[in-house]
């Protein structure tokens, strides 16, 4: 945490103990939850959090297999924390106001339709080096279902474009091979040929995706900002964040009859039950189509 974040959390914990009368153990649990949230946010200060950050965090907890009780406690902690910041005049609005509680976690992940994905992926200006980078990055995320941290850590040595696959290093340093579609291969090759070299100038980097400034590795928050900007530019009215491309990848594969075990392997889930959440998405879509199209729907 930054010094500012640390001071906010410390004053919140003191408030819980002194004014709300919470137990020391509960206060410790809240501190742990806030630390986990802060680690997830990477470079985002706690006072700059918006609802999509919290939704993405809850999805992340679901992927980790956290129990519904623990997930509800984490959300409760965030609600109390941000209400405290509003109470103290640090924030004007509480970002948790419209966040639904993960009751028994049939929490259906948000995803984009194929048409919305096309809009987002076609937003970058590929005549410019940065646009080429962003185009390749978006295509890669949708083609592979990578987590944003995996994308940021992707190295050029892990790409095999002629064979159309990428070696991805996930949680616990576990590696998996993911096939890449033709569009992602095409635009990544273009980026490596015409964009990355110009961004790096005379510098070198082991990472595929680099920043224009000093050729540094991209951060998760930087990718978040890029995706949000393109979503706004192409007129998507959904809350768009990096994980939504991972959800879209899995949902679209399932809707096109891919088997659950293959999706599990590509996503890098340790347990099939985590992947099964996407069957709920498919069922909800079928239900919606039935209600919309059936004469007696």
Describe this structure as you would to a colleague:
The chain is mainly alpha-helical. The chain has 2 domains: 3-87, Orthogonal Bundle (DNA polymerase, domain 1); 114-290, hpI Integrase, Chain A, CATH 1.10.443.10. It is 58% helix and 4% strand. It has 13 helices and 3 strands, in the order αααααααβββαααααα. It has helices spanning 3-18, 24-41, 51-63, 68-87, 114-121, 129-144, 148-152, 182-200, 220-233, 242-255, 260-267, 272-275, 277-293, and strands spanning 159-160, 165-169, 175-179. Strands 1-2-3 form a 3-stranded antiparallel β-sheet, with no helix packed on it. Strand 1 (159-160) and strand 2 form a beta hairpin. The longest helix has 20 residues, at 68-87. It is globular and about 60 Å long. The model has no long low-confidence stretch (mean pLDDT 85).
What is the structure about, briefly put?
This protein has 297 residues and is mainly alpha-helical.
Topology (elements, then pairings):
Blueprint: H1 3-18, H2 24-41, H3 51-63, H4 68-87, H5 114-121, H6 129-144, H7 148-152, E1 159-160, E2 165-169, E3 175-179, H8 182-200, H9 220-233, H10 242-255, H11 260-267, H12 272-275, H13 277-293
Antiparallel strand pairs: 1-2, 2-3
Helix pairs in contact: 1-2, 3-4, 6-8, 6-10, 10-13
Major pleated sheet = 3 strands, antiparallel
Residue windows where pLDDT falls under 50 for at least 5 positions: none
The CATH topology of the largest domain comes to hpI Integrase, Chain A
Overall morphology: globular
The average pLDDT is: 85
Q: What strand line-up does the widest sheet have?
A: 1-2-3
How many discrete domains? 2
CATH second-level architecture of the largest domain: Orthogonal Bundle
Q: What amount of the residues lies in strands? A: under 5%
Query: What count of helical segments does DSSP give?
Result: 13
Number of strands: 3
Radius of gyration from the alpha-carbon trace, in angstroms: 21 Å
Structural class: mainly alpha
Helix content: 55-70%
Distance between the termini: 52 Å
CATH class of the largest domain: Mainly Alpha
């Amino acid at each position: 945490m930054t010094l500012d974040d640390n001071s906010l959390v410390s004053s919140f914990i003191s408030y819980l103990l002194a004014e709300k009368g919470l137990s020391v153990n509960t206060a410790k649990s809240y501190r742990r939850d806030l630390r986990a949230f802060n680690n997830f946010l990477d470079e985002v200060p706690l006072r700059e959090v918006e609802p999509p950050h919290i939704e993405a965090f809850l999805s992340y907890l679901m992927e980790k297999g956290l129990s519904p009780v623990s997930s509800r406690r984490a959300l409760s902690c965030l609600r109390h924390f941000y209400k405290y910041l509003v109470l103290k005049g640090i924030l004007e609005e509480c970002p948790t106001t419209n966040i639904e509680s993960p009751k028994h976690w049939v929490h259906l992940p948000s995803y984009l339709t194929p048409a919305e994905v096309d809009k987002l992926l076609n937003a970058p200006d590929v005549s410019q080096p940065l646009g080429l980078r962003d185009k390749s990055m978006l295509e890669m995320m949708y083609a592979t279902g990578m987590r944003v941290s995996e994308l940021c850590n992707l190295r050029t040595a892990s790409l095999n474009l002629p064979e159309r696959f990428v070696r991805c290093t996930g949680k616990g340093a576990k590696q998996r091979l993911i096939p890449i579609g033709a569009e992602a291969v095409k635009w990544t090759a273009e980026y490596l040929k015409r964009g990355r070299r110009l961004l790096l100038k005379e510098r070198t980097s082991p990472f595929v995706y680099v920043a224009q400034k000093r050729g540094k590795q991209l951060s998760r928050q930087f990718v978040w900002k890029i995706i949000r900007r393109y979503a706004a530019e192409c007129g998507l009215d959904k809350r768009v964040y990096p994980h939504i491309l991972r959800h879209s990848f899995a949902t679209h594969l399932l809707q096109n009859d891919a088997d659950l075990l293959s999706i599990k392997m590509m996503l890098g889930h340790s347990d099939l039950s985590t992947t099964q959440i996407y069957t709920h998405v498919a069922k909800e879509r079928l239900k919606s189509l039935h209600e919309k199209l059936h004469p007696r729907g």
